[in-house]
Each structure stands twice: as C-alpha cells, then as structure tokens.
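Contributing new records

If you add data, match the layout below exactly. Sequence lines come first and carry their own label; structure lines follow with theirs. Keep one chain per record. Anything else will be rejected by the validation script.
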Amino acid sequence: MFKKVLARLGIGAATVNTIIHTKDLYPGKQVEGIVEINGGSVAQEINHIALKLKAYAKKKSGDGEVSVKIQLHEERVSGKLTIEANEQKSIPFSFQLPYYAPITIGHGQVWIETDLDIDLSFDPTDVDYLKIYAHEELSNFVEAFKLLGFRLRQVEVEAQDGRFYQEWEFVPNSKREWRFDEIECMIEPNKDGLFMRVAVDKAGSHRGLAGLLQESLGLDEKKTALTFTNTQLKDAHSVASTLRAFLQQYN
C-alpha cells in the first residue's frame, strides 16, 4: 500500500520514453516510432497513452504580445492497459503529421509530449523536440519571393481567436522596384495547397501629415487572400509570375 501511495506521488511510478524513428519530418507525411514504458515498483492502470503535438505561439495581450504554448494535435496510441511492476512494454505508433504543423525555422519550437494518463497520480510524460522541414511546394513559394527580390526576415506561429497559423514575413532587398516595408503571409497549408491571408505594408512610402495619418489608422496596410494549388506550386518561376502580378496592384 505504501508503494502505491508513493507511485501516485510520482515516486517509484512507471516512466515513459518515446523514440521517433522517422528522420526527416514533413507536414502531411507519416511519423513513426515507439513508446517505451518501464513499470515502477507497483502495478499501475493506464487509461490511455497520447502523443500531443505542441508549439510556442505569439498571442496578442493588451497592446503587446506574449508567448504561449498551444496544442496542435493529439494522437492516441493506446487505450487502457496495465503495466506491472518492473515490466517493460514497447508500443509502436504511426500517424500523419498534420499539414498545418509549423515548419521549425528560426527560433520556432515544435515538440511531441507523450502523456500516460493514470487516475489519482502524477502522469508520467516525455518531451521530444522535432525538426520539421518545408515540403517542396512551400519551399517553391519561398523561393518565388527570392526570385522577385525579397528576403525572408522571420517566421512565427501566431494564435488568434482559437486558431493558429504560421506567419512568413518578407522584406524587399531594395526599394527601387518594390515600395513595401514588408509583406506578411499568414499561411494555412492543406492537402490541396496553400491558403494565405496577405498583408502588404507600404507605411514607409508615405510622406507628410497625410502619410502619418494613414499609418496611425492602419490604412497603409492592404489585406487580401491568396490560394495556390499544389500543381501551381510545382514551379517557383510560375509562382513568382503570379506573385508579381498580385504585388504590382499595391506597389
């Protein structure tokens, strides 16, 4: 009985370790691995084992922003089971990484948190940080901006109104051709391609009192939406041509 009480407090309880076998992770592709459970000093009933995909995101708070943890996806890999004292179990898993999983670029972090749900006890957990790469279509979209004379300044995960998306911010290398301060693309990938809300910021091009008024009211920023299918995204030069026509409306 004393050992059971200690196990509920996390002393001598079961432990968990997740091993991810898939080396190169891409949104929409399979993630494979195993969950290893090592029994503690007493038998324990586990309600379920869940893999929780999480990330840090920026969220508006008052006049500023704060960094918060958000859960992107949950995958159950086991239902009820019993882990005996000192027993070892290995449970294989395979699931599709969501298309909307953020690319880990810059300071962005995405991880899988493994949770053993045990009643009246501290739940054993394990954290595994992931490196998620951009698939060909998204890479071609970024390359298209490069072809037009822009560079990628930063990428962040944003959370707003219960939704989240990854924001890609591009700035022109020169103001000779493009009179923009920045282009923000709030990208939401899906199995068919990329949907994005685009904010075109021309604040730097305004002059005098009228320009300052426009900027203070947010009228210097134009917002619209774009959609690219996977077929369109197969060629970066074709995407660049479409983007050029779109951006010239606001230049």
